[in-house]
């Protein structure tokens, strides 16, 4: 019997669907799962009569795959990945390849890449985005590792990935942890997108008093223009689903506690580590955190008072303003994400091509949107672009959207409606466009209480002021910006 083109460990939703995707594209796959009963169910169920081999042990899996072996892990991030690597290594030969297709932390991927390279085994940390549908029909794939490892998987990955305009939504990202880092930031941008959409929905629902069918039509209309995206599309579909038992829109029956798996938090932590401003992504994470304390919020609602009522102005005018605010905020969120990727590339020595990243996100993945073509165009115009806001197209959009953007934030504040992502995006824009910020006062305060020193606008060097007349000339040993 011919051996499989590659092996896959992990038969959860993503694993099963990715195997079926690969088999439909002409590849044979051997599979294994820690709970071996899942293997049998899969082989006798969705995989029946397909070119898929079920195995019941690591040894059997490795033996079922052609050499040099390509074994993909789609298991929970963290310790489970290390555990399977430890089990695999004794059965692999030099030149074999392990692929981690889960949402692993990029630092772990860097470590694993180095450890396995010392044993002669190749390793690719591969971000896979698209959820269940993407895995089955074609996801966005972001592989990072040795280039020779990429060449081994390129024929498979480029065929099973989503295809847009005849191009695969997959490209080599960079060395060691680059693929998982880019996937992490993709997820951080996804957090931002979802929070921005939820805030637009919330303003329509509680600020404009709109019904679900009315809001559904707004999202349908938005999806025909600049906001055309997968998330806007499925938001419109969600608003149209009614619970058969109660006759209530399902969205109204869903508890307002948002879950998270950690990639948004990792993105925000990385931004802090690298000193890159990503406030909209961070606010999206914090919004999920405050949603989680549901009991506290219900109790607080009984004692804390704020504005009530709905918007008294022209509804259509406000809807247009929400559209513009959402688009401008989305631009800022992506600008933050790409600045973060640029910061990581510099920190870790990754040779990344930002226009290509935008292109592989156009299909398959959760943040796929027509808007991404504009990002590719921006980096084509200027490969060294420091910030998307500086590109002529995006600059014009945010300039045209400013009045509406500010109107939405102001009216939301007046109505007591929380819009942390939209307002933080506006604050980011206002901060980035100002040549002088309030940080001079921060430095003065730091120097006053801790002799942390400061720089001056009129001369070079580092300075300290004896603010009270009683301090000495001793200062902190370092000045860090």
Give descriptors for this structure.
481 residues; alpha/beta; seven-stranded mixed beta sheet; two-stranded antiparallel ribbon; 20 helices; 9 strands; globular
Fold and architecture overview:
The structure is a single chain. This protein has 481 residues and is an alpha/beta fold. It is built from 20 helices and 9 strands. The strands form 2 sheets. The chain has a 7-stranded mixed sheet, sandwiched between helices. Strands 8-9 form a two-stranded antiparallel sheet. A hairpin with a 2-residue loop joins strand 8 and strand 9. Helix 8 crosses helix 13.
Q: Short description, anyone?
A:
The chain has 481 residues and is α/β, with parallel strands linked by helices.
Estimated helix fraction: 40-55%
* Strand percentage: 5-15%
Count of DSSP E strands?
Answer: 9
Radius of gyration: 25 Å
Termini gap: 63 Å
Largest sheet: 7 strands, mixed
Q: Structural class of the secondary structure composition?
A: alpha/beta
Number of H/I helices: 20
* Lateral arrangement of strands in the main beta sheet: 3-2-1-4-5-6-7
The topology string of helices and strands comes to EHEHEHEHEHEHEHEEHHHHHHHHHHHHH
General shape:
globular
Low-confidence stretches: none
Arithmetic mean of pLDDT: 94
């Amino acid at each position: 019997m011919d051996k499989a083109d590659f092996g896959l460990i992990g038969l959860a939703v993503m694993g099963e669907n990715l195997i079926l995707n690969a088999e439909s594209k002409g590849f044979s796959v051997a599979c294994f799962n820690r709970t071996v009963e899942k293997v049998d169910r899969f082989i006798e169920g969705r995989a029946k009569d397909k070119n898929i081999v079920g195995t019941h042990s690591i040894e059997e899996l490795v033996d079922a795959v052609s050499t040099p072996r390509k074994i993909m892990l789609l298991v929970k991030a963290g310790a489970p990945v290390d555990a399977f690597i430890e089990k695999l290594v004794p059965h692999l030969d030099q030149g074999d390849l392990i692929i981690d297709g889960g949402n692993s932390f990029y630092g772990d991927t860097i470590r694993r890449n180095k450890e396995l390279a010392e044993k002669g085994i190749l390793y690719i940390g591969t971000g896979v985005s698209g959820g269940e549908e993407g895995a089955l029909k074609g996801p966005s794939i972001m592989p990072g590792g040795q280039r020779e490892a990429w060449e081994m998987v390129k024929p498979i990955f480029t065929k099973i990935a989503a295809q847009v305009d005849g191009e695969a939504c997959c490209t080599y990202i960079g060395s060691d942890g680059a693929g998982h880092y880019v996937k992490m930031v993709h997820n951080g941008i996804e957090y931002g997108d979802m929070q921005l959409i939820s805030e637009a929905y919330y303003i329509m629902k509680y600020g404009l008093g709109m019904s679900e069918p009315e809001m559904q039509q707004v999202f349908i209309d938005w999806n025909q223009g600049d906001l055309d995206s997968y998330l806007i599309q499925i938001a419109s579909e969600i608003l149209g689903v009614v619970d058969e038992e109660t006759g209530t829109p399902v969205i109204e029956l869903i508890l307002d506690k948002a879950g998270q798996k950690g990639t948004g938090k990792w993105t925000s932590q990385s931004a802090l580590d690298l000193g890159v401003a990503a406030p909209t992504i961070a606010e999206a994470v914090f919004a999920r955190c405050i949603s989680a304390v549901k009991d506290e919020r219900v109790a607080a609602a009984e004692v804390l008072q704020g504005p009530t009522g709905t918007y008294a102005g022209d509804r259509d005018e406000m809807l247009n303003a929400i559209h513009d605010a959402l688009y401008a905020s989305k631009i800022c969120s992506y600008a933050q994400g790409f600045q973060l990727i640029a910061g990581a590339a510099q920190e870790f020595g990754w040779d990344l091509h930002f226009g290509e990243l935008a292109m592989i996100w156009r299909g398959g993945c959760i943040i796929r949107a027509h808007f991404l073509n504009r990002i590719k165009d921006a980096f084509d115009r200027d490969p060294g672009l420091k910030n998307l806001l500086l590109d002529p197209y995006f600059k014009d959009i945010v300039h045209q959207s400013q009045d509406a953007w500010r109107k939405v934030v102001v009216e939301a504040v007046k109505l007591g409606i929380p819009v942390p992502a939209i307002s933080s995006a506006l604050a980011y824009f206002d901060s980035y466009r100002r040549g002088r910020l309030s940080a001079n006062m921060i430095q003065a305060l730091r120097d006053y209480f801790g002799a942390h020193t400061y720089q001056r606008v009129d001369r070079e060097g580092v300075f300290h002021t004896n603010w009270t007349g009683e301090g000495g000339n001793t200062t902190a040993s370092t000045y860090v910006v």
